[in-house]
Structures are given as C-alpha cells and as structure tokens.
Amino acid sequence: MVSKMIIFATVLVFCQSFSAVVFAVAPDVDERFLNVYKEGKWLVEFYAPWCGHCKKLEPIYNKVSHVLRNSDVKVVKMDATRFSHVSSLFEVRGFPTIKFLDGEKVYTFHGERTEEDILAFVNKAKGPSVRWLYSIGKLNEAKDAHKNEVFYLFVGDNDPSNDLLNKYSSIAEDKVSQTYFYAANKRILPEDLSLKSDPTVIVFKDNKVFEFEAPRGIATMSSLQKWINSERYPAFPLISGGNINEMADTGKLLVIFVIDQNYPEQKEDNLRHGHWSQGALPFSETCRSGLGGADRVKEMAAHLAHNERAAFHDDFQFLWMAEVDTVNNIMLAFVSPPYLMVLDPTVHLYYVPDTPLSKMDSNTLREFLNNVKSGKIEALGGTGFFQRLKRLFYDILVTVIEVWQSSRWLFLIMFGIPTGVISCVCYSLCCMETVDDGALSDEEEDSDEEYRQIIKEHKQLTEAEERAKTHPKGE
Hints:
Number of strands: 14
Radius of gyration: 36 Å
C-alpha cells in the first residue's frame, strides 16, 4: 500500500511538472496594458501573426516565460498588428521586438533570440545598474560568469561625492541592459594588476584588462562615455543583424565578415586540407598551409583584431555574422558568403574590396583597411534619392519573398487575387467589341440632313409670316 502511494505521488509530481512546462505560454495582452505597464517589471514581445521569425521565437519565448514565472518580471506578448497604436507608442519598428519595461524605463533587446540571451538581457535590465563587489571571490565569480563577455569595473571607494563614480553610475544607468557594470575597492584586485590612476575604470575583455585614460588627466562625461562605447564589444564577436544599429555607438567603422560555416565551398576546402580546429596552428602557418573556407577567413580576421589592436582598434570594430541577410539589406543586393564589407553606420555608407574575401590574405586585408581609413576607397550607399528609390523596390521584393515563404495562402490573397482581377480587367478592355466607325458616320450624316431640312422649313415659315405682316389684307 505504501509503495503504491509513493508511485502515485511520483506520477502526480511528474504530471504537474510536465503540465507546467507544456502550458507555460506567455499570455497575450491588449490596449489595456497601457494602464498597468508602469506598475512593476515587464518583458513584452511585440509580434505579427504572419511573421515567420515570430513563429520561430514562440517556443523559446514560452520557455523564458516558464523560467521567470516565479520572479518579479511578468512575461507577456502583444499582437502589434491589432494594437498598432500601442506598438507605435513603444517605437516598435520590426517583428519580433522584445522590450523590458520598468516604470518609465524602456530597454530594447538586440541580442540573439535564444533563451540564454533573453534571460541574460532580463538579468541586466532589472538591475541594479552598478553592482558592488566586496571580496576577491565575488570578483572571480564575475570574471567566470562573463569570461566570453565584456564588463566594466569602477575601482575606488564607495563615496557618493566621487566625481568619477557619479559619471560612471550615470552611464551605467543608461546602458544597464547592454552590459554589466561593477564597482569594487582596489584591495580586492589581483596584486599583479598595475593601474595608472586611483580611482579609475577598467574593462575586462578578451582575457585582458584595459584601463580608461582620461584626456589630459581630466575625466569628463563625454570622454568616459566614448571610451565605454569603444570597448563595449570583444575584439572579434559573433553578432546578429539586430545589433548592427546598436554598434553605431562605438563611433567606429564596422568591419563585417559574413562567414557561413555550412557553405558548400568552405566544406570542400576543409575536407581537401584535412580536419582543422580554430587555434590549432599559428596564423602564419595557417596561411602557408593553404587552409581555405570559413576557418581561414576567421583566423585571418581574428589575428588582426586581437594582435594588431594598436593599428586598428581606434578606427575599426571587427565582427562576423553567419547570416547574409543583414549585408543584403545594407547593400540592397544579394551576395554570397564569404563576404567582407566595411560599414559606416552613422551615414549609411559602406566599402567593399575589389578582391573577393576568399582570395584575400592578411596583407591584402590590412591594405584594404588602411585605404578605407585614408579615404582612398570609394564609398557606396548613402541616403540619396536614388538610394531611397532603390530601397523601396528592394523592400517590396523582400516582402513578397517573405510572404511567399511564410504562407502560400497569404501570398495568394495579397498578390494572386489582385493580380488576377487586374488581368481580367485588362483583358476585358483589350477584347471589348469595337464600334463600326463607318456606320456611325452614316447615322451622323442622316441626322445632320434632317436638322438642315427642319431649319429650312422653319426659315420659310418665318419669311411668310413677315410678308403677311407687311402687306395689307386682300393685296
């Protein structure tokens, strides 16, 4: 009897757990959300029912809802096509868009649409903006937690009158959803870490530490913010398309490598030269060995980004992405990986090399970047009239393709039926029976003859009446 009760309890607990996972669906909200969103913390997804990316995100977002079900963050979603006035209020520009709301504060998610990245975004956004570390162990925990990320550390006393701390805290408040900002006393830092100033701000990135150096020894808000923006990303990160606009804050030209590891030619190159893992060979040996494809390109780019920081860090931010759609959208064209483009996100200009990326070596790449920096390469793109017109046609084409890929029936309703109606109208106009011009002319001539005869009779009658008036009776 006891064993049966234990089995029953185990099955009950399992069923409850399973049902919790299955039914952990983020609820939909309507326009009444505007009355309550300032109360507490909210994670909101703005979606469109026809959007393929939204459908792909749905199970991931439901998992996030399940993880946060017992937290102080409420996870909801909204159909932005039904409540467009609400989405406009929150400046939603595309689908899906995820935002974190905390009273008057609104933060937009720009990372990869994975459960881990969304949860990390929530953890940053809900604060605190500056997290104080009071022991060496806590510092080591932060370093382990962010070993593949960038995080900042104010080094100094927790003194509210400290000018650098106040500037640092103000910037952290504005960028709390983007990265982690810590603060600690100098005594918890490793003894081998030598700093030039006290207090100061340092950044941990790429397994190294870099210190903020104030221009002329005066730490202004603008100089500190510019330095934080310039150090915000690792030397050669993997970036999604949604992060491109956000990276404009770095104030640098973006060196974008489009590298698809599943590209057929790259697979053939890897097989031809044997199995190789990134970092197995020094960069010079890698180039001499003739390794091709994605690995060779990534190694070449990573070498310049990490080992030639002094030459390129101030002007360029290196990055790579696996999808080519972002580059297509910038160039208003359709290119194939591997591909290289240098983008100036502030003025929407871009530069492309004459040599294909698959045929470039480190010297060619270095020369291309130096020519871009010196203005020897012609800039393309921009925001001129013809570029805007080109974007209009490109957006129409992409929209048609996306609708076709997402739903054949929707494509038929939006484009097939109107096209069929217009075709029928045009066919009817072209095949309409024409009127015989000769017959029409004869009818017009007959009508004119009758009209002239009536006028003639009326004129004769008028003349007879005039004669009768002017002559006496009987004359």
